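Saturday, quiet lab. Running sequence design on the structure tokens for the scaffold JK sent over.
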């Protein structure tokens, strides 16, 4: 089983097939290094994202930064 973690979507489990792997690699190609507006860490995010997956999950659960 192959699995990956990225700052855009969190944990990826690649058991579902080549389509998921291709999507993961496309996300990685389009991501840029930037500072997360929640935790301040330097992460690779899609240009339109401001928060890493960890901070986005916290926001969805009611945290306030």
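Result came back. Writing it out in full:
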């Amino acid at each position: 089983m192959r699995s990956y973690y990225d700052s855009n979507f969190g944990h990826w489990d690649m058991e579902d097939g080549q389509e998921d792997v291709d999507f993961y690699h496309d996300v990685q190609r389009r991501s840029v290094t930037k500072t997360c507006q929640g935790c301040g860490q330097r992460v690779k995010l899609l240009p339109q994202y401001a928060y890493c997956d960890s901070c986005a999950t916290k926001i969805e659960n009611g945290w306030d930064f």
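Notes for JK: The mean pLDDT is 90. The chain has one domain: 3-60. Ask whether to fix the surface positions before the next round.
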